[in-house]
């Protein structure tokens, strides 16, 4: 049974997700009446949401509780699943599994995974959520022979954790390519955006501890909630070049 405090948090977060950054949720008195809760309980919840960066308070005649512009950071230099980087930022990660199957790979997946003409892949399509709001659409493929029974697992969490726990596989590194695309009608419907909206496509080939490719995936992140930040090192004389770092930042709410 969901506790009253968790019910309150979910209701407020749902209203935040339905709004836009900078929009006013209401005054403390208005919100207490809207959510049928005491002002002391509301203050405690708002303090936690403010610490998480979801809202901020303004004092004065035009003050109140406002939706923040804060962002979630995800490092592209680490092979980490969506639930991990969302949880690290205080979001409740969620998943909707759309479809799973064992199928023949297309040419790109076959080449990326170094498969033969008669090999199959396990294909998993999911929508990833942050506090109940869709942020990305995933299509991941794995060599079927290497992961027997994968579709019988609980696929709502991190697939990397399943691969490590049940198959002894550790992802050592990944090659990722990033490009801007537009949402098809089907993609837009799944991500709760308008058709033709900007998406960020991240294509990834992940490798195991022995250097063999173990995953080919295509992740579509909502363009209105995603910002890329990349740090690179110059090549001047005497400068040692460490590995470049990059991050994906997911805006906490859609921009109108």
UniProtKB/TrEMBL annotation:
<keyword id="KW-0804">Transcription</keyword>
<dbReference type="GO" id="GO:0003700">
    <property type="term" value="F:DNA-binding transcription factor activity"/>
</dbReference>
<dbReference type="GO" id="GO:0045892">
    <property type="term" value="P:negative regulation of DNA-templated transcription"/>
</dbReference>
<dbReference type="InterPro" id="IPR050679">
    <property type="entry name" value="Bact_HTH_transcr_reg"/>
</dbReference>
<keyword id="KW-0238">DNA-binding</keyword>
<dbReference type="InterPro" id="IPR000524">
    <property type="entry name" value="Tscrpt_reg_HTH_GntR"/>
</dbReference>
<protein>
    <submittedName>
        <fullName>GntR family transcriptional regulator</fullName>
    </submittedName>
</protein>
<dbReference type="InterPro" id="IPR036390">
    <property type="entry name" value="WH_DNA-bd_sf"/>
</dbReference>
<dbReference type="Pfam" id="PF07702">
    <property type="entry name" value="UTRA"/>
</dbReference>
<feature type="domain" description="HTH gntR-type">
    <location>
        <begin position="1"/>
        <end position="70"/>
    </location>
</feature>
<dbReference type="InterPro" id="IPR011663">
    <property type="entry name" value="UTRA"/>
</dbReference>
<dbReference type="Pfam" id="PF00392">
    <property type="entry name" value="GntR"/>
</dbReference>
<dbReference type="GO" id="GO:0003677">
    <property type="term" value="F:DNA binding"/>
</dbReference>
<keyword id="KW-0805">Transcription regulation</keyword>
<dbReference type="InterPro" id="IPR036388">
    <property type="entry name" value="WH-like_DNA-bd_sf"/>
</dbReference>
<dbReference type="InterPro" id="IPR028978">
    <property type="entry name" value="Chorismate_lyase_/UTRA_dom_sf"/>
</dbReference>
